[in-house]
Amino acid sequence: MSTVNRSGSVTLPVVIAIAALGFLAYNSLFTVAEWEQAVVTQFGAIKGEPILDAGLHTKLPFIQQVHRYDRRLLRWDGRETTTITRDRKTIVIDVTARWRIEDARTFLEAIGSQELAATRLNGIIEGAVKDEIAKYDLFEVVRSSNRILERDPNMPSLIDDEDFLEDEELDLATMGGETPPLSVDATGNYIAGRPVVIDGILREARNRLASIGLGIHLEDVLIKQVNYSAAIEANVYAQMNAELQKISAGFRSIGRERAERRLGEMERELASIQSAAVETAERIRGDAEAEAIRIYAEAYNEDPEFFAFLRTLQAYEKILDRNSTLILGTDSPLYGLLKAGGLPAAPAIRAE
Fold it and tell me: Which has the higher per-residue pLDDT, 85 or 322?
């Protein structure tokens, strides 16, 4: 019996057969992306190994189902965890991690979905965090090295003065200088500090995952933030403020000491300059007086009478002014000088 009528159109049974084949193919074929892995189940039981190859795959229609999971690294962000350190400090720690589904078969049997996996990771990682943090003091959780306790030779000095001891400068310029150093082993490797704590958390969480068997591989763990609890946060800030005030007071003290020293050096230098100037002035004055005496001596030797006459006039100039009254005798040299109107005889002007 022909399925095509005389007009050339397809009959209804053919259409139904094509639709049935298409529906059957739709339910028996599926694709897996590059970043996916798939597990096929039949009536709830897993059939075969997880499918890791990307491309087109087949399954029994209607009775088999495909469960797809991401093969890439997935991010886990847990809740902030309140825990206590070995030195009884209460802190709030925020941790993140990256994980991936390593065994899709085991993952499906144990958990079933990625949303439930995040919930399971909450308890596992938070428990590992609390156990590991309790092994260390607070400064060992926060710090990663002893750099703040050591002087870096490549770092410029904060106090450019050789007169100050390095220990004094380090005490002023380093916050937390009184904190004990992180412990190291015989080879110099740290056995405490944030990297060691993170490695311990990762190792402990991996051990717990392996013991449970969830088909999950924990790639890494990272501490995002460490905060004090609200109850002691105010005290911590007060201690930090006191430490900063101590540092600033130390710098101001050093500044005042340097200023006083510079002022003393300046005063000593000024006194030295003034002393040298006075010495030079006295030497020049002495040389000038000696030269004047020499000139006077030469002038006197050239004409002793004229020199005596000049000294007499200078003496009269000093002792006489407009308000002076002078009584002269006829035998006075000055009277003879005024009467003659010129130079008197030598015997008449000699001093009496």
Answer: 85
CB 60 within 8 A of CB 43: no
Domain 74-146+181-228: give its CATH architecture.
Answer: 2-Layer Sandwich (3.30)
pLDDT at 10: 59
Check if the beta carbon of residue 194 is closer than 8 Å to that of residue 118: no
- For the chain, the structural domain boundaries read 12-70, 74-146+181-228, 232-302, 305-352
What is the enclosing helix (H) or strand (E) of 50? Answer: strand 45-51
| Whole-number Å distance between alpha carbons of 341 and 31 | 147
Residues 6+ apart with CB under 8 A from 228: 89, 90, 91, 92, 236
Strand 45-51 with 90-101, pairing: unpaired
The b/e string for 299-318 (b: 16+ C-beta within 10 A; e otherwise) is eeeeeeeeeebeebeeeeee
Which is it for strands 55-58 and 64-70: parallel, antiparallel or unpaired? unpaired
Residue 165, pLDDT > 50, answer no
Proportion of the chain above pLDDT 90, given as a percent: 36
Rounded to a whole number of angstroms, the distance between the first and last alpha carbons of the chain is 182
Lowest mean pLDDT, pick from 18-27, 146-155, 238-247: 146-155
Task: State how far Cα 19 lies from the chain centre.
Answer: 72
pLDDT given for residue 284 in this prediction:
94
The candidate with the shortest Cα–Cα distance to 225, out of 98, 79, 125, is 79
Helix (H) or strand (E) holding 315: helix 304-319
Cβ(206)–Cβ(216) below 8 Å: no
Q: Is the pLDDT of residue 100 over 50?
A: yes
In one-letter notation, the amino acid at residue 133 is: I
The pLDDT value recorded for residue 347 is 42
Under 8 Å between Cβ of 98 and 121: no
pTM of the predicted structure, to 2 decimals: 0.59
Q: What percent of the chain has pLDDT over 70?
A: 81
